[in-house]
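Side project, low priority. Logging it here so it doesn't get lost.
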Amino acid sequence: MWDWTKAIAIAVVLSVLVRTYVFAPTIVDGESMMTTLETHERVIVNKLIYRFEAPKRGDIIVFHATPDKDFIKRIVGLPGDRLEVRRDVLYVNGRPVDEPYLAENKALWKKELEEAHLPPDLPFTEDFTVDRVPPGTVFVLGDNRRNSTDSRVLGPVPLSRIVGRAEFVFWPLDRFRWLHP
């Protein structure tokens, strides 16, 4: 009986340590990252990655948006970057950025405009400019830009508030996929 108790105790302690310091499951809540991530999908967050490497443009991160709420968004700007969205194109330091993950959302937006008999040239992402992303922060946007509370509202995200990088969707099983190549 003692051997079983020790084995179970060790398993519980290891499980708590791994979840606290290495990997953690997170539930996607909301539509701000659609169609990349759907509401109620579950992702694994790598909590150690940014101890060994700096965040990169394109990383999907989980961060503490408020003391009680974590958000999941995509990094589009790094410290020192100048950002601009003009006529639905993201520019980083004056260069246009290819955002293939927005294609499906942009197509859905055009269809909504057509069905509502609105002008087809209304932008999916409203124009904005950020002169410089401050040191020690990143600028994040949701992939569903029409329905996202992100750095346009919250401001740049301090690196100290980043929980980690979302690595893969593990639930539901039929939608398992890696989020980073």
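Brief comment: DSSP finds four helices and twelve strands in the chain.
Revisit when time allows.
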